[in-house]
Design goal:
Largest sheet: none
Number of helices: 5
Strand content: under 5%
Radius of gyration: 15 Å
Structural class: mainly alpha
Helix content: 55-70%
Number of strands: 0
Oligomer: single chain
Order of helices and strands: HHHHH
Number of domains: 1
Shape: globular
């Protein structure tokens, strides 16, 4: 594997999501940093609790901001 290889996540988003992200997350490097933290929290939760975490999120039984630690903390700090 080449030394300059950097793994990436790639997935489709809606046009509305793109517009919102372009407006709200326009600072260079911000998206990478934010989604890296969220991904680490999500993977930690799946490792400790299993795929039930994925099921809960996908069934919308809980919003990610209610269960992912970094998002819970951000929500609490922004409301207080």
């Amino acid at each position: 594997m080449a030394e300059d290889y950097k793994p990436r996540f790639s997935f489709e988003i809606t046009e509305e999501q793109k517009k919102r992200a372009d407006t709200l997350l326009s600072t260079y490097g911000l998206r990478k940093n934010i989604f890296g933290v969220i991904l680490d929290d999500l993977l930690d939760m799946i490792e400790s609790s299993g795929m039930i975490v994925v099921g809960v999120i996908l069934s919308r039984a809980a919003k990610p901001r209610e269960i992912i630690p970094a998002l819970v903390d951000a929500k609490e700090r922004s409301n207080g």
